[in-house]
Amino acid sequence: MKNIIIGVLALQGAYIEHVNFLNTCIADGDYGINGFDITVIEVRTSKELQKCNALVIPGGESTSMSLIARRVGIFDDLIAFVHDKNKVIWGTCAGLIFLAKKIDNVDHNADILDTLKLVDVSILRNAFGRQSQSFIKSCDFSSFINDCDDYETVFIRAPVINKILDPGTVKILYSLEYEKESGEVDNLIVAAKQNDNVLITSFHPELSDDFRFHKYFIEDFVLK
Amino acid sequence: MSDFKIKSGFAQMLKGGVIMDVVTPEQAIIAEKAGACAVMALEKIPADMRKTGSVCRMSDPKMIKEIMESVTIPVMAKVRIGHFVEAQILETLEVDCIDESEVLTPADWTHHIDKKKFKTLFVCGAKNLGEALRRINEGAAMIRTKGEAGTGDVSEAVKHINQITREIESLKDLSTSELEIRAAEYRVPVDLLKEVASKRCLPVVNFAAGGVATPADAALLMQLGCDGVFVGSGIFKSSNPEKLAKAIVEATTNYNDPQKLLEVSKDLGDLMPGISIGSIPTKPGHSSDNNKRLSEIGW
Lengths: 224, 299
Hints:
The complex is a heterodimer.
Chain A: E1 2-9, H1 15-29, E2 36-43, H2 46-50, E3 54-57, H3 62-71, H4 75-82, E4 88-92, H5 94-99, E5 100-103, E6 119-124, E7 135-139, E8 151-155, E9 160-164, E10 170-179, E11 185-194, E12 198-201, H6 212-222
Parallel strand pairs in A: 1-2, 1-3, 3-4, 4-12, 5-6
Antiparallel strand pairs in A: 6-9, 7-8, 10-11, 11-12
Chain B: H1 4-13, E1 18-22, H2 25-34, E2 38-41, H3 46-52, H4 61-70, E3 75-80, H5 84-93, E4 97-101, E5 121-126, H6 129-137, E6 142-145, H7 155-169, H8 176-186, H9 190-199, E7 205-207, H10 215-223, E8 229-231, H11 233-236, H12 241-253, H13 258-265
Parallel strand pairs in B: 1-2, 1-8, 2-3, 3-4, 4-5, 5-6, 6-7
Helix pairs in contact in B: 2-4, 2-12, 8-9, 10-12, 12-13
Pfam families (chain B): SOR_SNZ
Keywords (chain B): Lyase, Pyridoxal phosphate, Schiff base
Family (chain B): Belongs to the PdxS/SNZ family.
């Protein structure tokens, strides 16, 4: 039996939701048949981090998460962990911001929002605006998740991927057609992967009543 | 999935975080740099409202807007209980969350705002399960304990979270007909109560508020089961707000680690002097007397 530990970074934000979703997928997935024993743990310390094979960085407030990571002394170990090519990483919303190499609209708080600089993308924070512009949209993810053509996708003060800095390693998984107030339609990158071990999504699969995205992460990333 | 998910999901992102009362853009920046996950924009903090005895209303939207422009974290603002026009104004201003708050003078002593009519989410105070569920039934997407704002005395917030926890716990042995009786008593639909009974928690995020003044207070409320903490007067009424704000954020993250709590509790300077709850008379209902318990406002 191969033991695999998936950590969920539990400094601030919606981490319990990820823990619960992953546990539901594991209970449902019968991975033991294929020789995998998967456990999910909450990660607050470097010691907990070192146990993990994979790490999920949840949604929350990206400035809070970054500052708290520094203050609890886990920041440098997080950098080393996520840059290890043998580890599997997934960031959702604030987690995506925290993993991005560059933030295009940092303005005044460049000094407080340090990122782990893993994914070769530049992003826009709060790309759709304030909470009043948050929305839910049904998306067709069947190009990368089998038969998943009706996924209810939740965007809350969401960032988007503004530019892919290294097209050799980063592949777009999904672009959202978004109609701006002017009526112009933009194609905004909201899901991507870097190599075969890093997944980033600007939305919140942990808020959908749908486990398929977490199952995709386990089967196409963690167990690959 | 409903629009409610967009509202309740926003509150879920704040969990494990600290929301700080601020009266100027400078204070908002201090809060953001300390690691606050949101700020509450106010003209006066509750400790100062207590002293005035005058009618307390929604803050000047110009001042709220300045705070919104000074930080990237979400900005909340308060409206009077039942004042749905103040809420319409704040929704138009695009604040991220509206607090229908007992800290301000109520505009309607019979009805709370019909929060389902708004696209903006609301947070409301509660001191027991019935009150929390009535607010959720009206459309609130986030609950906080009422505590006793502006006092620096944490005991009321402790009382309210314990009350809510105890009442949720008491649902587990109730039969369907007993749940129906309880729902009628609470004046909420039985399905909502059944959901709470089966999940054994509120269907929305529940923060602590009212009287939090120290890192230990924040950790206490987290250990009692709150999802996060509002800090009002405590921070900017202390002698070193930057240091205290950071310490409260750290205590909220490490609420179960006494070693970390010891470190962040040291050398914080003069804390808010406060008013003990015992010195404030109980005087429910409509009163212009400033010397009263705010948690008794709202129903």
